[in-house]
Design a protein that fits this description.
This protein has six helices and 35 strands.
């Protein structure tokens, strides 16, 4: 058997040529391939994607009923004899569709595993026709279009499946169960594949989609991030992030924020400088609320689990509750360290003030959540400058004090010497260094170290070499990223 793995995505209209006549064009595949191989007893998903041939608007709609009723599926065997397969058309969400260079329509026929088991082994050719010549609604396209061809070879399942064929099998079962509305079947197929082949990224992505659809945004975020980390580790020179993952990650962040806003929470935990209620294990967290402490207290030396009578307890997705070390407390802000032992997923933070009042709120624990520490309201980056001169190493500050003792930027000179920026951050240490990047003024700064700083719990450091091309740039942004997860933007000034 053979199969080229690919994510189950819509075809892009950019595949078309300018000379294609206007109107709809149909592209056909079986189990996400134009030339598929499957075993009897596996499901078949026969999909046609309808796109505008030249990118202009094409409206599909019938006088009555769904637009997909104008589609007909033809199956022939290798001798050209017509076949009658028990293929069930999944009804699309909308009766009418408008095609363009961006929007496409999709229709899928399902052939159940029990039915493919009774189909004779062999190669079958398939095509789909869209015919609205007599049924088009007012203002809708009227005509006839035939899809590109697709083929599927059915054969007996071997006693032992190759890794590629096993992936084909369980991804097909997962897609079939999803379209049948069988969420338990989707999860079972994906869990089996993930257990057998942890490197199959599509299985993780599909499982994350399943969790997101079920409203488990914390679990979905964790899986999306793991998938993206695996992808970037396997493709360190990828020209751009995998948008099939970065877009749902952004959507899940928005859902988590909506949940937080509507939860009635009295405390919100975020990474420093960020707004999403998402934190990483072994990182520093800012918790906001009111009445969180009876006064203002700062830890002397190492953080403690009780400060000024205030305590922070986190109950993770595994139901384990653990006390968090605290750096600072006031009535409206508590800075604490998320323990390294936290399980990923949905968690609850409980802040108990010295007077016995308690405040709680949900938070999502994810693998990484990079954040950069800043020194003032203008976002001056918290960092040290390390300059290597002929006389040796010289350490400098990125800040100075004005006449009123306010922290201001001290412009950095990179016109000579070898100069490094030691960037102070959190939520980074669990990521491979190869995934950590820093952009300064739009210029990539090579990362020489990314990991735990060692002085305090959750305190990370990222060292980067400052390119000489930054000389004379003035005030520019500093953006720390782990994969496509961007930290809050800080600033630095260059002479």
């Amino acid at each position: 058997m053979r199969r080229t793995l690919g994510l189950w995505i819509l075809l892009s209209a950019s595949w078309l040529w300018a000379q294609t006549p206007p109107g709809p064009e149909l592209v056909l595949d079986v189990n996400a391939q134009s030339d598929a191989v499957a075993a009897g007893g596996w499901p078949l998903l026969i999909r046609t994607v309808v796109i505008s041939a030249d990118g202009t608007q094409v409206n599909l709609g019938l006088k009555s009923g769904m637009w997909s009723q104008a589609l007909s599926l033809t199956v022939t065997d290798q001798n050209g004899a017509s076949q009658s397969w028990p293929a069930q058309l999944v009804q699309p969400a909308s009766a009418n569709v408008s095609l363009s260079g961006i929007n496409a329509a999709e229709a899928v026929w399902l052939v159940a595993p029990a039915d493919t088991a009774s189909i004779a082994a062999g190669t079958y050719n398939l095509s789909v026709t869209l015919d609205t010549t007599s049924t088009a609604g007012s203002g809708a396209w009227s005509g006839r279009a035939v899809s590109s061809g697709a083929a599927v070879t059915l054969e007996a399942e071997p006693a032992s499946l190759s890794a590629e064929d096993e992936a084909s099998k369980y991804l097909a079962f997962a897609a079939y169960a999803r379209l049948k509305g069988d969420t338990q079947g989707v999860g079972s197929a994906l869990d089996t594949l993930i257990a057998d082949q942890p490197s199959i990224l599509e299985a993780y992505k599909e499982k994350a989609d399943l969790l997101a659809d079920a409203g488990d945004y914390a679990g979905a975020l964790s899986l999306y991030q793991q998938t993206l980390t695996k992808f970037l580790a396997a493709n360190p020179n990828a020209a751009e992030p995998l948008t099939l993952l970065t877009l749902p990650i952004d959507a899940v962040y928005a859902k988590i924020a909506q949940q937080q806003a509507g939860s009635g929470a009295t405390v919100t935990s975020v990474a420093p400088g960020r707004t999403e209620p998402v934190v990483a294990p072994d990182s520093i967290v800012a918790a906001y609320g009111s009445g969180l402490a009876t006064g203002t207290f700062a830890a002397s030396g190492s953080p403690t689990t009780t400060l000024g009578g205030t305590t922070v307890t986190i109950t993770d997705s595994g139901g384990v509750s653990v006390a968090a070390p605290i750096f600072f407390v006031s009535s409206t802000l508590v800075n604490y360290a998320a323990p390294a032992s936290l399980a990923l997923g949905a968690a609850t933070v409980m802040v108990k003030a010295g007077d016995g009042t308690s405040h709680s709120g949900p938070v999502t624990v994810a693998d990484v959540q990079p954040a950069v520490f800043t020194l003032n309201a203008a976002g001056l980056v918290a960092a040290d400058i390390i300059r290597f001169t002929d006389a040796g190493q010289v350490n400098e500050n990125v800040y100075a004090l004005d006449a009123s003792n306010n922290i201001i930027a001290a412009p950095v000179d990179v016109s000579k010497d070898q100069v490094y920026l030691a960037l102070f951050a959190t939520g980074v240490r669990r990521a491979p260094q190869s995934l950590v990047t820093v952009s300064i003024g739009g210029v990539n700064a090579p990362v020489s170290f990314a990991g735990a700083q060692g002085s305090y719990p959750g305190f990370d450091q990222v060292n980067v070499q400052l390119p000489a091309s930054l000389a004379g740039r003035g005030d520019v942004p500093v953006v720390l990223s782990v994969g496509s997860n961007h930290a809050n933007t800080a600033r630095i000034t260059f002479k």
